[in-house]
Amino acid sequence: MATLDWIVLGAYFLVMVAIGLWSRKRVHTIADFFTAGGRIPWWLSGISHHMSGYSAIMFVTFAAVAYDHGVTVYFWWPLTIGLGVGIGAFLFAARWNRLRARHGVNSPLAYLAVRYDLPTQQVLAYSGAALKVVDIAAKWVAIALLLQGFADIPLVWGIILTGVCTMFYMAFGGLWADVLTDFGQFVIQAVAGLAMLFALLAHLDGVATLWTMWGDLPDGHGDPINGPVTSGLIMAFLLVKTFEYNGGMWNLAQRYMAAPSGSRAKKSALLSSFLWIVWPFVLFLPMIAAPLVVPGIEDGEKSYIMLAQELLPAGIIGLLLAGFFSHTMAMVASDSNVITAVITRDLAPVLVPRTRRLTQAGRLLFARVTTVAFVTASMALALVTDPDGFIMTVVVSIVAATMGPISIPLMLGLLPWFRRHGPRAALTSWAGGLAVWAYLYWIVEDASQTANVGLPVLTSLVLYLVVGLVRPEGSATRDLLVGSLDSDPSEAERAAVEKRLRDAPPASDGAAVAETLTIR
Predict the structure, then answer these.
(1) What is the residue range of 512's domain?
(2) Which long-range contacts (CB under 8 A, 24 or more apart) does 333-336 make?
(3) Three-class secondary structure of residue 415 per DSSP
(4) Which pLDDT tens digit goes with each residue over 22-74?
(5) Is the dihedral of CA 168, 182, 343, 477 positive or negative?
(6) Which of 172, 302, 307, 446 has its CA 20 to 30 A from that of 498?
(7) Which stretches within 110-154 are classed as H helix?
(8) What angle do CA 55, 57, 63 make, to 5 degrees?
(9) Which whole-number Å values give the CA distances from 239 to 86, 103, 112, 268, in the listed order?
(10) Between 20 and 475, the higher pLDDT residue
């Protein structure tokens, strides 16, 4: 890296610190820290939702898939997410927002204690939090590998550098800092991504490269299905991503909750869906064409690094690396914020009852300390793991495979068609899906990726539907809760909820849901 690249990268870190300090002025209560008080514009919420799905993993592991197998990576990953988010815009986005607007909750899992029962909420919270620690560890490893490739920075120091910076601005600024970082990431990614695309076109045949390169690439690189990617895997990912990116990945539910209203949350989801379908294809084109520029690479995970070093001038490489940092730090910040919300608002009041008596300032301090602890735990796991193959194992075999069983009771519990599906259906679905995953992951040798990803989520879905139909557990409270999410509250209703929760904040978000339902 040239001196100009280091200057650009240093300027990026200073901007991150400034965002954290500026956002701190907007955080006065626990609601500001976790959901920005519902004051984030719909377009910013949509951009943040979209950008929260990126990390450096895209430029390491997914770049390897693009280098080795071609355009299939687009059909396997971003297209399934874009279609899934588009479906969720009509099913889930507005209902997440109304949980905050009608019931004043700050955690996506808060409503589960009333919708099902407290044990169900706790089981889903603990299993999801454990999964997030592993997921974030993979992201630290990915950004550290990029730092090592571009700047020869040891893996350990790469993890520590990104982790400490993320820890700082998130602990200060909460969701506001996260969303503003996402927007900055969007701008950096647009500049760096277009620079890489134009550099590629200039290096090859100009604009004509867009339609002539396919015949020059290795056989199968222009096929939607190639290599380890099968049509079954694509369908399995579409099912998983529909749940994951509409709230099963808890931080993305927060984006909908932070919008001003349910109708605007729906617009946020539609914007995110459009961006997922269009923009990643622009980013992936240079990765797909990389065999024409840097042929013969044995380790595909290094292909994007070598491509950038071949095509980009000084300064732009620094901007590109800043974009990698921004991808990872924004996603980790997003995850740490929502995990902190779950811990402080759902887990801690049950595990340590005295946290229920904390003042508003005490709860805000507790949230910040929890943010630091979560990021530290994920960094520690990243530091002790073997980076070879770790990222793909986590992304596909662990996160994608277990996200369905954890998210199905959470997501379907929002919908009116399943209002009679109670805790028995939720826990059976969760346990059955994870049991199938554990069997495939640890017992079955050479289970396919399609089986690893698809069978757990299908098992969980079928069990939830069947158990709920055979053993329904309807109640007036559940009906009232689900029914309250059908429409946006009036401004007077919204203001009354905010005032009541501000004047006498409940011990937990679950208590807030119960209180507002009692008043109704």
Answers:
(1) 3-518
(2) 333/166, 333/169, 333/170, 333/177, 333/178, 333/181, 334/48, 334/52, 334/178, 334/182, 334/251, 334/252, 334/254, 335/132, 335/135, 335/136, 335/250, 335/251, 336/136, 336/166, 336/170, 336/371, 336/374, 336/375
(3) coil
(4) 666 665 555 556 556 667 889 998 998 888 777 667 777 788 889 999 999 99
(5) positive
(6) 172
(7) 112-115, 118-151
(8) 125
(9) 13, 29, 22, 21
(10) 475
Residue 399: CB partners within 8 Å, gap ≥ 6?
A: 131, 134, 135, 138
Which CATH number belongs to the domain containing residue 355 in this structure? 1.20.1730.10
Average pLDDT value for the chain: 80
Domain total for the chain? 1
Question: Measured between alpha carbons, how far is 190 from 112 in angstroms, rounded to an integer?
Answer: 38
CA distances from 114 to 109, 325, 469, 481 (A): 10, 39, 20, 8
Count of CB atoms within 10 A of residue 445's CB? 5
**Rg, the chain, Cα only:** 22
The whole-number pLDDT of residue 412 equals 94
Of 38, 373, 19, nearest in space to 172 by CA: 19
Q: Map residue 444 onto helix, strand or coil.
A: coil
Integer angstrom CA distances of residue 155 from 146, 309, 361:
9, 20, 37
Which amino acid, one-letter code, is at 290? A
Token digits for 483? 């029914």
Distance CA 347, CA 338 (A): 13
Strands (DSSP E) found in 338-481: none
Cα gap 241→232, rounded to integer Å: 14
The whole-angstrom separation of Cα 34 and Cα 341 is: 6
